[in-house]
Every structure is written in C-alpha cells, then in structure tokens.
Amino acid sequence: MAEASKESVLETRDLHVYAGDRCLLRNVNLRITANRVFGLTGSSGAGKSTLLRSLNRLIELDAGLRTTGDILLHGRSIFTADVDADTLRARVGILFQQPVVFPVTIYKNVLFGARHLDRTPRKELPALAERALREAALWDEVKDRLQEPATRLSIGQQQRLCLARTLAVDPEVILMDEPTSALDPKSTEAIEQLILHLKATRTIVLVTHNLGQARRVADTLACVEVRDGAGEIEDCGPCAEIITKAVPPTIRQEFKSGFEPAP
Amino acid sequence: MRRALDRAFTFGATTFAALAVGVIVLIVSALVWRGASAISWEFFTEQMQLVGAAGGIFYNILGTLILLLTALLFSLPLATGIALVQSVYLRNPRTRERLWLGLSVLNGIPSILFGLFGLIVFVKFLGWGKSWLTGGLLLGIMMLPTVAVALIERIQAMPRKYVEAAKGLGLREPQIIWSVILPQCSGGLVTGALLGLARAAGETAPIMFTATIFAGATLPQGIKESPVLTLPYHIFVLAQDSFDPAVSAKVWGAALVLLGLVMSLSLAALPARLRMHEEAHHG
User: Fold this and answer.
1) What is the pTM of this model?
2) Does residue B162 sit at the A interface (CB-CB below 8 Å)?
3) Residue B14 lies in domain
4) Which residue of B has its CA nearest to A174?
5) What is the DSSP letter of A256?
C-alpha cells in the first residue's frame, strides 16, 4: 500500500495510558506518515484527546496519568533520557479546542513561543511574525492592529492566531484537538483550508467529532472506541474506507447527500 | 413563629453589623475630633520638639516608611518563591499541605514573639543593637504569609489552559513562570503586599526592642546601632507616659496620620481584591 511505503513520522507501539489503576487507553499502535492529515475520531470520552496529548508528552502535566509502551518520532523513542520534553513540544506543536490567547498584544502572542526558543535573532522577529500570520491566513486582517490586545479578535481569528503562534515555532507535526468545534462555519472552513494547505510542509494529527470534516481533510482515519472500559483503536485506514465501514448504511446515505463528495 | 424567628434573626444580624460599623465610625471620628487640630503642614515636615509637646512627626513618618519599604523589599521575593514552590514546583499534595500549614502557623505567631526573636538574634547575637534593618526584616517575615497566600490563591485561580498552551509551545518551566504565571498573577502580589504593609505599619511589639526609639534618631547612617523613630512607638510612649495636654493633641494627630496611612494601604488593595473575587466567581 502507498501509505506503508512512506516514512512514518510518529509511531505508537503498544501505548497504554493509565489514571492510577484505571486503564484509559489500551494497546494503541498507530503509524502517522509525513505530510498527511491523520484523523482521529470516536465517541466522546473514548480517549482521543488523551491519545493526542500523549504524542507530545503534554499529558505529563497531569500528575495522575502514566504511560506504558512507546512513541517513536522518526524512529526514536520520545521517552529516553536524552529527549527533553520541552524541546519535543516545540517540534510537535498543539492547537486546542478553545483558542488560548495570552492577555497581551497580537504581536506578542504570535511570537510567544518563538521568542523563548532563542533560535531567531531579535531583529528577524517581526519578519517571522508576519510569515507565521500569513501562513495562518490572518495577516491581512491584523496587519494594522498588531499592537492591540489579542482578546479583541473574534474566536475564529483567535484560533488562527493560535495556529500562527504554533507555526512561528516551526513544528514538523501539529496536533489539533477539535480545533473547529468552538468556531462558526466560516472560520471552520478557513481552518480546514489551512489544514489542507499546511500538510504540504507539515504532518497533522487531527481529532475531530465531525465525520464530514474528517472526509474533507483527513487522509487516514483512526476510530477510538471504548471496549471493556478503555479506549482502543477500533479501526484505522484510508479515510474514505473507514467512513464507509464506520457509518451505518442509512446514516451514510444522509451523510452523502449532506456533504460534497470527497475530491 | 417562623416569621418571628426570621425577624429576630434579621434584627440581630443588622444590630451586629451596625455595631461593627459604629465602632469604626466612633474610632475614626474620635481621632478626627481630637487630632485634626494638630494636623498642619509643619506637623508633617518638622521634627519632634519638647518631648512631643511641640514640633511635628517628620522623622516618625520617615522611619515607619523606611521599615515598611525594607519589609516590602524583603518579603516580595521570598513570598514569590514560597508561592511558586507551593503552586508550581511541589507535586506531592502532602508536602504542599505542610507548607500551607507552616504559613498558617507563621501567620498566627503573636507579634511580641517576633520582637523577642529579633532581640535575641539580631540585637544580641549578631550585635546589631537597635537597627532599622532588624525591624524591616521582622515586619517582612510577619507579612510573608499574607503576601504568599494572596499570590498562591491567585495562581490557583488562574485557568490551567494558559500553562498548557505555553507548555505546548515548548516553553520551559522558568519561562512559563516569568512570562505566563507572574504577569497574570501580579495582582495577587500587589494585594497581598498592601494588606501586609497595612498590618505591619501599625505593629509596635516587633519593633519596640529591636528597631525604634522614642527620640534622638534621624536618618539611619548604617546598620549597627541605627534605630529610627516610628509612628506606632511614638504613640505608644506618649500615650503611656505623658500627662501634658499639649502632648495629648499631638498624639491624637499622630494616631490620625497612622490611621490614614493604614487605611490608604488597605483601600489601595481593594480594587484588586474585588476584581479577584469577580474572576473567581465568573471567570
């Protein structure tokens, strides 16, 4: 299969996540290939977000969660002693469900991560900010108001600002946790367009509730479902195939008539 | 029956509230009534003369301000450190509880014990004699729980999403503290500091054997044997020892100035406190 021949960027091996003694995620084995959009879907509470957050070790912020198994980034474990979690998170960025803008100016928000990584010389920062804002399709809307508080932007703009902030750090993988579920249809469309555009240069893992969205942007789709109290990967494969399998025929009919067919 | 009980309860509550307000009004009006005549420009700018019967309280105000400033400079970094250890670095809830308990104990220590501690350690053991620095340090330690607790409460009320977002960008812990936690929680630090200072300004017990004398001090020149004049000690000595009616008016005046200082510190903290409550309930 074409998928298998491509290099895998992220790979999970027998990944389990526990909260105390309780198993939240069981035996997750996924291969996420470069320059593709990897969709994660499934019922609420099945552990999609937990799985997503374990990919850049963000779940370690919860003192109660414990991981076993392994996650490989370009074939190397992200849990070995020489891997620094903060550096990892700069390489594997994340976009949350609700946009989280800091109570500072738009300009400072864009550079919030980049400024602290000390990779970019100080005088190149304005150019970096512009590049990131352009990449997130926000530049034209904010170029004249960079010094305004970011909280004045609409929610949809805030989410694109958060995306720009992540892009400014230049991660190779971007994890997205239902990035459009808080947004209006127009902003949702903008984000989906951006996802399709971004996969030329990055790898994207997208958690989504919305099968229509999965169909529009995802190349590969994995379904997380609860079995015996813990989330498991029920199915994983090319997006169109999984959707056909996962959705009962009657719903599939409505689904097909309600959305544009995938190109 | 229930209505009567209701009424009695409302009546009781109102009476107690009125009583509390009444006491405050009584104190303030007594101070204004008896002290207002002493207040003048010279009262603030001249030094004390004739054992308090004439002149002003310039050096007493200055001394109190020196102690407060020292206490502030000492307690701010310490309280910030404690608050960060408590709410960022300590992962074990039991250790956190112990630190919290420690702060409560520190807050409950009677102020005269701070005075004795200062007398034994700084005045005698280190041989500083009476010094403004001892007084500032002691008041700083006394303020510590107030400042630290205000900051801790603020940090705990801060939405976790900000820390998560910063972590997700690859920021390190110290960077998150400097650019996310402290800027968003500085209001807690300001509130705590103002409340702590308001309390410290009126303290007499911790400084009476360690930092302040009644007369004969101006600006401190060094650390050893360099006490300052202060407002609370001035009031304490004159109220106790003097029967001179000329002194009496000056004491009331000094008390009014001290009250004004404490009240303005408390009032300055009020907006930040109200905002914090609003955020806690609606944020």
Assistant:
1) 0.82
2) yes
3) 1-38
4) B168
5) H
